Amino acid sequence: MPRGTPPLLFTMHLFYIPRVNANSLVLPEEESRHCVRVLRLAAGDTLSLVDGRGGWYRCRVTRADAKQCEVTCIEKIEGHGRREFSIHVAIAPTKNIERLEWCLEKCTEIGIDEITPLLCDRSERKVIHPERLEKILVAAMKQSLKAYLPVLHPLTACREFLRDHRDTLKCIAHCDAGERYSLHQRYIPGTNITLLVGPEGDFSPDEIRLALANGFLPVTLGESRLRTETAGIVACHTVHLLNALGS
Amino acid sequence: MPRGTPPLLFTMHLFYIPRVNANSLVLPEEESRHCVRVLRLAAGDTLSLVDGRGGWYRCRVTRADAKQCEVTCIEKIEGHGRREFSIHVAIAPTKNIERLEWCLEKCTEIGIDEITPLLCDRSERKVIHPERLEKILVAAMKQSLKAYLPVLHPLTACREFLRDHRDTLKCIAHCDAGERYSLHQRYIPGTNITLLVGPEGDFSPDEIRLALANGFLPVTLGESRLRTETAGIVACHTVHLLNALGS
Fold first, then answer.
1. What domains are defined for chain B?
2. Per the count of CB atoms within 10 A, which of A86, B70, B71, B91 is most buried?
């Protein structure tokens, strides 16, 4: 048995309601069941819910019904955990999809804004199930007590993504030869970044050429040869740490 | 089909032989089979092997036997990839052991020297299978082309580990209240570090007290509530990045 009382942070359960339109609302059936049957909350108890777009609501249970639990908002915080920078990782889904799932979970915990699964020349995996990935993002958001749900874009052809200009710092982490700087030498704290991570067999020379022609800067993520999913996590954390150091 | 030829880095297969005593050696059966049947190497072809203690050997196949493949060393590099700092992560195995396995794989890819599984007051998992974890470390070392195999220590009671003084910077990443600095504020590039990561329910107040009494500095790993296995990876990468920035 655990000794002592774990801190609040560990016991807190977060509910996710994408649209909070009124002061009073009814939790969906699964969340109602969790609230009443698992957490055993009763009328008068408080809970927290997030809308995935920065809204954090403190609520009070008004009707502890295991199918239709009713709550009333008593406090709203907007932009909870908003950052000065945004991270968009465009990454080729791994052959073993669990590796990508793991990457998305970890990036969500660390903090990421947008994810685009990329279809590359050397992609072995050409199909993903967005609903499953979406569920992982929601679970990781709740678990890490965040109010923002990362945006999961549809699977996009790498060439198409490259042509789609964005107003951010653009980097491509490839393993091909050629002059490259470390991500930490390229990134300036406070800036938004879009970073590309290739499949197990790397980006093709064509894709790398097209990326450079479209203003993507080639970067390395350190001394080690990292797997695709590790590269995604390391890139995400590098940007966070550089912002923490720079602020 | 992939276009073009992937760079050497992607096609390279590394063999692991813990003891390289002579100039000529016979690969173990599984490695022999991989060499001859899977990679289809023939007499005269070259391959690389590592000893897990920094030795990197370029070898030439002298007898392509699928059961007893014989090779001769033609070049030896000692201390391949040696670093100016060492990282020891002592971490409570997760309830779901796959999470710890992922953590060890990722830390090995990023670069770690020692790992101690910790038995804590609030550990839900009290048993591990070191042989399985060892296999994961070997695979990750080979995959990330490293010559050093991280040392996996036996499962150790947290209290015992805390009393065992070590000549490194010592940090404990806990989630309890109290004044703490970020790991990046505590760490000085070039120093060796021992960092403790607790179980899902965190370290107990007793363990935290004992850690502080034994010279461990309380640290945070950023703004987010991270899972145990994410904390291990983030800590490991933070130390690497701070060294890269500081050098």
1. 8-77 (2.40.240.20), 87-246 (3.40.1280.10)
2. B71
